[in-house]
Amino acid sequence: MSANEGSFLVSQEMYLKSGIHIGTKFRTRYMDAFIYKTRPDGLSVLNLQKIDERIRMAANMLSKYEPQDILIASRRENGWKAVKAFGRHTGTRTFAGRYPPGILTNPKLDNYLEVKLVLVTDSWPDRNVIRDSVQIGIPVIALCDTNNQSNEIDLVVPCNNKGKKSLGILFYILAREYQRSRGLLGKDEEPKFTLEEFTEE
User: Fold this and answer.
1) Spans of the chain, pLDDT less than 50
2) For residues 159 and 46, is the Cβ–Cβ distance under 8 A?
């Protein structure tokens, strides 16, 4: 699906302002397909159109599941505010902070969870969640920067997964699209929540 300027999920200006496309100085071959160029200072820049397409795919995948069947995990502190806001407005389960190992795989644990889809904000710090999900066959959506490995991931969403503004806008869009797909929002209706709830200045 080719996205021209008019069909982006938010304006191109909003995307650029959030820095969602700014990668790192390190790039893996896994992420080459999503990289638009490398700047003179060595930072890789992600392709905005591909970011938008993948956010759309992630929203579509999330919309197929009930809120209680989805787990969103973020070990990295920069994602906590965005992840918690997403949970608040969608009813999904969230882990902001350390993921307790085994809660998806060991029914004997008091905090055992049964979920059908997992989304992580970074495939490296969140690798324990990914490992548990893979072990029991739960599909994984992962936000991946230019330096991430993407094996064992069912859907890669390329983005700056370290910036608070970048994560804020991404989870804001996902929450809005999730509400729309569940019939809680009209097609062109704006949500009751604001971008500020997801992002930090």
Assistant:
1) 1-5
2) yes
Q: Phi-psi category of 126—alpha, beta or left, where left has phi over 0 and alpha has psi -120 to 50? A: alpha
- Helices 80-90 & 164-181 angle (0-180, nearest 10): 10
0.85 exceeded by pTM: yes
Q: What is the pLDDT of residue 94?
A: 95
Instruction: Say what the alpha-carbon torsion angle 93, 96, 100, 105 is, to the nearest 10 degrees.
Output: 30
Domain that holds residue 139: 5-197
Taking alpha carbons only, the member of 140, 177, 169, 181 closest to residue 79 is 169
- Sign of torsion, CA 134 76 178 111? positive
**Looking at the 3D structure of the chain, how many domains does it have?**
1
Alpha-carbon gap, residue 74 to 58, rounded angstroms: 16
pLDDT the model gives residue 75: 96
CATH code of residue 47: 3.40.50.10490
Residue 36 amino acid letter: Y
- C-alpha 30: how far from chain center: 17
